Amino acid sequence: MVIAVASGKGGTGKTTVAVNLALVLGDVQFIDCDVEEPNAHLFLKPVLTEKTPARVIVPEIIEERCTFCGKCAEVCAFNCIAVIPPNAGLKGGVLVFPNLCHSCGACSLLCPEGAIRESHREIGVVETGQAGAIRFAHGRLHVGEAMSPPLIRQVKGHIDRNRTTIIDAPPGTSCPVINALEGSDYCLLVTEPTPFGLNDLVLAVDVLKVMGIPHGLVINRYDIGDGAVEAYAKQNGIPVLMRIPFDRTIAEHYSKGINMVEKDGDYAEKFRALFKDIRKHYETDRSHQRKRGHG
Amino acid sequence: MKQIVVISGKGGTGKTIFTASLAALAPSKVLVDCDVDAADLHLLLAPRTVERYEFRSGKTAWIDPALCISCGKCADACRFDAIVESGDEFEVNPLACEGCGLCARICPVDGIEMRENLCGEWFLSDTAYGPFVHAKLGIAQENSGKLVARVREAAKGIAQSRNLDYVIIDGPPGIGCPVLASLTDTDLAVIVTEPTLSGIHDARRILELTRHFRIPAGIVINKWDINPEASREIEALCDEEGVSFLGRIPFSKQVAASLIKARPYVETAQDDVADAIRAAWNRIDSEPTGKDRRSS
């Protein structure tokens, strides 16, 4: 079972929930898909044993074959190629902007002269290792790179679907989040009971509905906001699986990388119960789908 | 005109609450929310929307079932696994399609159409604090970087035509595409961080980014008293990196509780948090920016 932990709004406690859940379960895989700002390693402290460069495909022009026909620039939907035809005795040129490239392969496939070969560009690294019984993988996007989805897909390549997997997703609701959530069996949405939390929760729930992923809520710092998130969950039939109070000690421990379940046995019990609830809701949801004929 | 962007790397450090207070403190400005996929600044500025625009960007493939001969060439060529076979028919998964158009070009029966995406909307609004440009990315849509560029261009236009002194930008979390679009061509990046392992880790990465793009940066520590030792580490980091230390804001439960009032924090409270935000603004205001440095 693949459980993704996501949020819409940043800083609601995604990593905290994902890490503590992994710690109480022990024998799981942990996949940190927040490749722009990976943080889970600060809390799980894995021994990282392998580091693989994450590369994307980019075009490389074979100059001696190029006739400056301009086909590559015409077919590129992302404006990464500019062709300057030869003019008044000046040699022509082809400019490639690899940062904009989506690696679709259109230019190399459609070049009539076979003058484009594909080469690779590194956009980040994937690191894997072990934190106790937890198998760990995360990605680190190189600073200055724009596109995280290809790296997220490479990190997810480490998922072994026979094991319980916990994915720590990036914040937001756009491409990086969708790439992180794709293929998950269940999504835990971590939110806080403030107008910001609610606004971004509604957006995240809409995304999960489009993707058809069953989901439940963890309300963090549930005692320092208002009741609107609870009311929204009730109205929309979204189960609240856990409520974590604000506690200055938890916040201070978090700041030092100390995990809740390691300091407080009650929380270890609560996170185990959370996992049971996730399984239960996931099974119920699946059997409903079967009854409706989608399963 | 100075363009000031508030960013953080890590999400939830208090960017938007801080930016809303700058809206109340800074004179003569236009405000922009560049966190287009989880925009929150409008919740504190009570905007009245004056103009509304569609944001169209990119395309998605659509296979015409009447023309498709199920040869599967499109599915073989697609690098994004966006074309899926269901029974003996082929369909596009719009969430996976990146709109490159390769399938449409190679389809032997010309049976694939590239349809333009309506990715979201953006708005010009009036607020008690000045004009405000904001946006809403559609559900599960792409191209947030381009939408950020669009709202920034609109805001810059307003600042120039009305002769305003500041463009104040609420940025998204992370370091990827929408952050790059929020950061480019700004005069000062105000990094709001928190004294936690994650906050420091992410602040280091965002400082690497501002250095990479040669944008002057400064740091505000939010909730500094949660971990005074880590706060000192961040102050030391400022010295080490040669960026300005712009101030520190204490933790208060009142801040989260105040959000329901739907106003900038400095207008709802007279406490040490509000004082610290004011002090930080005064430092930002007197901070030499990239342009001053270039002209001096």
Number of domains of chain B: 2
The CATH first-level class of the largest domain in chain A comes to Alpha Beta
Question: Which topology of the largest domain in chain B does CATH recognise?
Answer: Rossmann fold
What kind of sheet is the major sheet of chain B? Answer: 9 strands, mixed
How would you name the CATH homologous superfamily of the largest domain in chain B? Answer: P-loop containing nucleotide triphosphate hydrolases
Assigned CATH superfamily of the largest domain in chain A: P-loop containing nucleotide triphosphate hydrolases
Q: Please give the count of helices of chain B.
A: 12
**Which regions of chain A have little confidence, pLDDT < 50, spanning 5+ residues?**
none
- Report strand % of chain A: 25-35%
The assigned CATH architecture of the largest domain in chain A is 3-Layer(aba) Sandwich
- Total domain count of chain A: 2
- Give the terminus-to-terminus CA distance of chain A: 16 Å
Kindly report the average pLDDT value of chain A: 95
Your description of this structure?
The complex is a heterodimer of chains A (295) and B (296). By secondary structure, chain A is α/β, with parallel strands linked by helices. Chain A folds into two domains: 2-54 and 124-291, P-loop containing nucleotide triphosphate hydrolases (Rossmann fold, 3-Layer(aba) Sandwich), CATH 3.40.50.300; 63-114, Alpha-Beta Plaits, CATH 3.30.70. Chain A is built from eleven helices and eleven strands. Chain A has a nine-stranded mixed beta sheet with strand order 3-6-7-2-8-1-9-10-11, sandwiched between helices. In chain A, helix 7 (195-211) links the parallel strand 9 and strand 10 (215-220). In chain A, helix 1 crosses helix 11 (265-291) and helix 5 runs parallel beside helix 6 (175-181). The two termini of chain A are 16 Å apart. With 296 residues, chain B is an alpha/beta fold. Chain B has two domains: 2-56 and 120-295, Rossmann fold (3-Layer(aba) Sandwich), CATH 3.40.50; 65-110, Alpha-Beta Plaits, CATH 3.30.70.20. Chain B has helices spanning 15-25, 42-45, 73-77, 102-106, 144-161, 177-183, 197-212, 228-241, 253-258, 265-268, 272-286, 290-295, and strands at 2-7, 29-33, 48-63, 83-86, 89-92, 112-127, 130-137, 166-170, 188-193, 217-222, 244-249. Chain B has a nine-stranded mixed beta sheet, with helices on both faces. A two-stranded antiparallel ribbon of chain B has the order 4-5. The longest helix of chain B has 18 residues, at 144-161. The mean pLDDT of chain B is 95. The chains are: A alpha/beta (295), B alpha/beta (296). Chains A and B meet through helix 4, helix 6, helix 7 and helix 9 of A and helix 4, helix 6, helix 7 and helix 9 of B.
